[in-house]
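name: query_chain
kind: protein
chains: 1
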Amino acid sequence: MSVKAVRILTLCLAILVITALGAGLFIRECTGTASAASFTYRVTPENGAVTQAKQPEIQFQLTLSGEKLESYQLYLDGQAMPAVYNPALGLISGQPPAELVSGRHNLKLTFVLAGFQPVEITSSFTVDGERYQPKTAVAKTGLLADGLKVLNSYRVALGLPIITEQPKLTQSAQAHADYLAGNKVFSHYQDKAHPGFAGVTVKDRAELFGYYLPVGEGLSTVAPYGGMGVDSLMDAPYHRLAHIDPNFTEAGMGFTLQPDCTVINYGAPQGLTDGRVVLYPYPGQTDAKIGWKAVESPNPLAAYGQEDTYVGYPISLSVHDSTTRELQVVSAQLTTAGGLAVPFFLVDSSKESSWKKHVFIIPQTLLTPGVAYTVRVEAVRLMTDGRTAPLTREWTFASLPRLEALSASMEQMDSGAAFVAVRVKNGDIADLEYTVTKGGEVWQAYQGGRYLRYNLDQPMTGKFTLELSSRLFDKPAVYELEITGAEHSQQVKIYSSTTSKGG
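structure:
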């Protein structure tokens, strides 16, 4: 029996950010006057917001013009509520002493600036405790722990802060995963007319569960076992930007199975203040991937008319702070360590309509295994205050010399027959082939982009041998597999390898 290979990876991007006051995007900034004093403020929950949190944290962030805050009082539904003031952040915050009933609630802040008349700010929000009810129980500790482990393995290698789980973002991510699976759609947006609606955007969904800080979202349809869905996002250059953003230090994840989906909601509790330059593959890396199949949405190679094609593994240089407006490339080079030029597609700010703080160098053909490459980028950093700053980076990395398996999962053909899907550490390779055998008998083959299954009258369980091959490598890679579990919930473990060195 055969089935045409189905691309398990479908990606799209929505880095929706609620920036800190004055940073520019997705913020409700209001102004007011107290006699001659001027100020700006932001309130959370936003005026008119809907939240599922029954004891949401209330915040009024004030930006003053040097005046001293002399006194303040926060009111909830006409009753005085305890609050504290953090002068360093300009933040007046408090929390209801008990859970709020569903419905509309009114806020009022009164304060006095030294030497001026009292000021009053009003706002309201709605508590809707029934907006979202969990539809699945897939967000198990194991899947979340595996996802965070994979994500943080990249961040540790890059010297970035590790990401910890944020329960509110886990709720938000799981709500969206349930919505996608329940409605058989794949999008960063929700329609309130559909079952399971929890908010149109990732910002709306995060706020529903009481998270009011900068957020981003990534989606993958790769099977979530072993963090594979999280891993797949690192290869797609736009989605990589969220994985490697130094400002994101907490996240939540949601999962569904059949259809497979991983939803990551990232959070930046300190705002977008980290302006370091991030390079990937990173300087000195010796196991970089060689190829990528361009299936990301939006398509980074749209300007070149390339889509659903095999190209070399994307190389990125990026900044992520709110004070950088754009990176303008002056020159870019990619060479072998011996100085041989490597043709590539350049994706910079001139090719972008919105995201303009990154540079993608995407080789036109697959990189060569076991070869060192040098990248050089000269650019100008345009700041939001009008300043400019030169930026030059040159670094070297090497591709993985051997063909190696990364992970394997059990998938199902349209007929319901199970098959093993394998991801390799070398990235996407057009001529990758593999067989799964038991006792010398072939149970499954993957050839020419098609899965072939044999012995359909027998359950595919127990110990098997996996053999991977590609013309790019002079010898195959051989692994021991064990398939366990009941039908439609099977898992695959790779126990050992007798990999020979590649070419």
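note: Helices lie at 141-158, 167-183, 202-208, 228-235, 237-243.
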